[in-house]
Amino acid sequence: MSSSLDGAAFDRVAADYDEVAQSRLGVLLRGRVHKVLEPLISSGSRVLDVGCGTGIDSAWMASRGAIVTGIDVSPRMIDIAKKRVGPPALFVVRDLNQSSWAAELGQFEAAISNFGAVSCVDDLADFGEQLAQSVEVGGVAVLVPMGHVVPWEQMAGLIRGDLSRVRRRFAKEPTIEHGYPGVSVRYMSARQLSRRLGARWRLRHASALGWALPTYAQRRAVEMAPRIGAALASVDAVGARLAGRLAMGDHQIAVLERV
Ligand SMILES: C[S@@+](CC[C@H](N)C(=O)[O-])C[C@H]1O[C@@H](n2cnc3c(N)ncnc32)[C@H](O)[C@@H]1O
Known about the structure:
- By secondary structure, the protein is α/β, with parallel strands linked by helices.
- It has one domain: Rossmann fold (3-Layer(aba) Sandwich).
- 42% of the residues lie in helices and 20% in strands.
- The strands form 2 sheets. Strands 3-2-1-4-5-9-8 form a 7-stranded mixed sheet, sandwiched between helices.
- Helix 5 links the parallel strand 4 (108-113) and strand 5 (135-143).
- The model has no long low-confidence stretch (mean pLDDT 94).
């Protein structure tokens, strides 16, 4: 996947991104990430939002007094983030597949990369090195890659006889992501991610996100039956640690310490 393709692909979805991200399902899932993030940031914390998209997490962190820098390969995503979050937050276009992406960003106490941005990275060892340059020793990174085992998606594939849909999250090679033409992603567990990032990162916490819930592509189920959606969200939260060990979840949450 070339980097210019990345920017163009995400530019194409930028205008409609918030509609999906702020759907009922999106709000339920993001709230879970914020629960993990909440004790790790405080007023005055310097935080890097990696693959910040339209800046939803940046805005949430800024509202808690964090000083946020957001980076993303898509200029349109960055424009929306800038409009959403005013100064002192700073937003710049950077491509995580360029080896100098961390240059001149400064040092941060924490980093977040939510909802699959890290799954678009070609060389995770290089990414781990550069992230380590950006985050102080003792600091944390909350990274949310796309996971392998998603019962709703894989059951739907089985019912329709679409085996490619059942298998795609287990592919060794990067796979074109549904809903993002031109974007190929790597699916991984929090533990796999931690190993690939290298020795400067230690996994503190791993859990599954969206293992009992439908995927974003199936979000209409949650819109149509909000009470069932809320009940599934509770099950999803209660079983997150165990499901995390089983590499389940549309996403996995990895909390890593910079060592
Ligand atoms: C699914 S969106 C998640 C956005 C945001 N983190 C959120 O939680 O809403 C993935 C983001 O990763 C960004 N991204 C993908 N590949 C990238 C790359 N190579 N460099 C920087 N950002 C990238 C995309 O532009 C997009 O904004």
